[in-house]
């Protein structure tokens, strides 16, 4: 028999959940109170689950992801959202998707278990409040994008480590993905137009509903004393993909003067539609930065893609463009805490390691990385430990 539950732990956790839920439903709700409630729910579940139930829950995650990926291919969720009241039967879904009815039933059982649809009656499926997110870019494009990009490598990861004597991958060109499928992430994407489009769409959508970097970072630090003529470069979004962050910044701060520049690889900027007040520029950050003396060079989710030696090269290419005493580097990425690392961040770390020998870094690792490029951190801002931090760095004062 499994060990008996610690009643006191369970009851006091349940009480904490109740209090946190009351905050979630009140005007005091914030990013950090929201994540605290989610963390408590995880702990509550673990407290209720027997150890073997925990084992089984983890063992059966891969088939859930595969079923979800298949349901996205079949475009089941957009069909469900067209029938919010009556729902759709397995027979109707089979007719509309071309899948065998019995297969639809088996896949939709999993979707119901994940809360992505509800069953009004046997074999009749209704959308839930989650379904809509799987018809929008974040789910519709994010699920197949990350599944196809990462899962074939993740399946092989244990074999990779066995063969590589459990050494951490340190070179981009010798990443686990390169070993497992022949290419690391950006070459793989560059050769697959459809997957690149899914990736771009997911990048643009994945932070909807979350605070932007400029909601967390005091933007006056950049606006104050910035050169205010139109020719002066104000913000360069390096590796900015479709320019979504710049577009949002312009929406919030339409009066800030100067040039706004989006940089990314040629095949990525060619599909960006950023409007007239943002310049799109094909540029590889592995080369020296051509825009000199901007107020800020902004890197969001860039350094976590790469091992240290490539980050060092990107930083050096940027440092050479900084105007001393004026320019700043703004980095938005995870800053891993020393304990209690949120599972989303530690999982992303394994994913980045797999697809390009990338790294999610702790504060100490950031200080070392930036210090080696002659930079020092002036401040780190964050809305909550579960969210990306904003790091401001400038050349070290001598
Ligand atoms: C994880 S995405 C982050 C995109 C965007 N900054 C964001 O946070 O949504 C990394 C970006 O780096 C770009 N990238 C990869 N290699 C690059 C290079 N050598 N030079 C410029 N951009 C590059 C990719 O095309 C992609 O848009």
TrEMBL record:
Active site: 304 (proton acceptor)
Residue ranges of domain O-methyltransferase C-terminal in the record: 179-375
UniProt entry tagged with the keyword NADP: no
Domain of life: Eukaryota
The keyword Heme belongs to this UniProt entry's keyword annotation: no
Record domain O-methyltransferase dimerisation: where: 66-129
One of the record's GO molecular function terms: O-methyltransferase activity
UniProt keyword list: Methyltransferase, S-adenosyl-L-methionine, Transferase
GO biological process: methylation; secondary metabolite biosynthetic process
Protein name: S-adenosyl-L-methionine-dependent methyltransferase
Species: Aspergillus avenaceus
Pfam families given in the database record: Dimerisation (PF08100), Methyltransf_2 (PF00891)
PROSITE patterns: SAM_OMT_II
